[in-house]
Amino acid sequence: MGTGRGTNESVLEVADEAARRHAGTARDLLAELVAQPSVEADPAIESCLNLVADQLAGAAIEIVRPVKDGLTSLVLRFGRGTPARRIAFAGHVDVVPVYDSWTMPPFALTERDGLLYGRGTCDMKGGVAAFVAALIALDDANLLHDCALELILTGDEEVGSRRGMISLLERGLATARRAVCGEPTGLDVFLGNRGLLWATVTVHGRGGHAGQLPYLHDPVPPSAALIEALARLPLDAVDERFDPPCASLAVTRIDAGAAVRALNIVPDSVEIGLDRRLLPGEDVEAAVAAVRDVAAAVIRPPFRYDLELVRSCPPYAIRPDDEIAVIARESVLAVQRRGAFGMDSAANDSSWLDWHGIATVLLGPGAPELAHVSDEHVTAEELADAVRIYARVGARTHAGLSTAPER
Predict the structure, then answer these.
(1) Is the dihedral of CA 320, 322, 326, 327 positive or negative?
(2) How many domains in the chain?
(3) DSSP element (H, E) containing 316
(4) Active site annotation includes 236
(5) What is 369-398 written as a DSSP string?
């Protein structure tokens, strides 16, 4: 097959038509995935991966099931196209826990007025189902053999990615140099996200009966002073591409022995939980060092402190003229979506893909603000359009297409 604009349009049109036929495939798989209560450490995580592997086993040229500390991930590769053109579809099947305010069954897909309800429909089993349906569509259209694609699915993104995406990248099991992460963006194209630092600072003293206060070392006052000092920590980074455009440091927990309700007990220690959001150009290690410097200046003998880094994720942003950004935007525009560029205010696996040199956009069905909420949902129309978009992105790797996206 030759190259050029006419050939490009022909291949993309064939991919799009096949994707239209597989909107129901995405919806049916989403129902099966939602039925699996795949919260942290639940065997349902592997059940979700099995559902995907079963759907795609006949189309994949390679299936890898890496295990790290008891957690399985799934990597499938498709097509004999040029490896240098390979694009990865990246996602996760784990979900956050369910709380009591749901008005419908969280682990059963419920359709009402064009909305598909269920835990994970938005974050991000909807994106996973659309990835799978797009790959099946390309296979049915006899295009997949000449493409170069990879599907990477993990089961611990909601709790830090250490055994999933980070491990896969460190072991060289992600081979693409470009990626689409199916996190919810409302089908806009997000070019990056803020970084994340979670840490606890524990201030130690010597507790006891409050009536003996002169002989104790109450850690509450120095903890309060530390919180005030952290609130004054300069956070100068500003990036107008993000909303909000500023870095932040929030105190999210203060625990001075919450399980002990007696008011006449001075605690031995106070634990302070911190959430630090970083912008591109900021460094996680430097942010940790800044918190440590403040704590060292405020917490003096007879008190001491411990700082524990709970979770981190680097910030990143790619350029709008990066090839994967152009491919993604053109694919979105082709299905009559607005194709707006944006940035994610959260943190997710796309940061780790970028950290390892894989240019990544976020692009998925569902509104970002609906992730993790009760009665989480995605529109049926967005799910169907996501299949078409991903099929077009995948078709861009077809050996018969010119290498440059249409401009």
Answers:
(1) negative
(2) 2
(3) strand 316-317
(4) no
(5) GGTTSTT-EEEHHHHHHHHHHHHHHHHTT-
Domain span holding position 84: 5-192+315-395
Catalytic residue among 123, 139, 150, 157: 157
| Span 93-120, pLDDT tens digits | 999 999 889 999 999 999 999 999 999 9
Catalytic position from the list 16, 94, 376, 385: 94
- For residues 76 and 151, the answer to whether their CB atoms sit within 8 Å is yes
127, 223: one domain:
no
User: Strand pairing of 62-64 and 74-78?
Assistant: antiparallel
Give the H/E segment covering residue 157.
Answer: none
Query: How do residues 194-214 score in pLDDT, each as one tens digit?
Result: 999 999 999 999 999 999 999
Clarify whether 243 is annotated catalytic. no
In a domain, 138, yes or no: yes
Taking alpha carbons only, the member of 229, 75, 104 closest to residue 164 is 75
- In three-state secondary structure terms, 44 is helix
For residues 333 and 407, the answer to whether their CB atoms sit within 8 Å is no
What is this structure's pTM?
Answer: 0.93
pLDDT tens digits, one per residue of 335-344: 999 999 999 9
The secondary structure of residue 123, as a DSSP letter, is I
Which one of 280, 313, 346 terminates a domain? Answer: 313
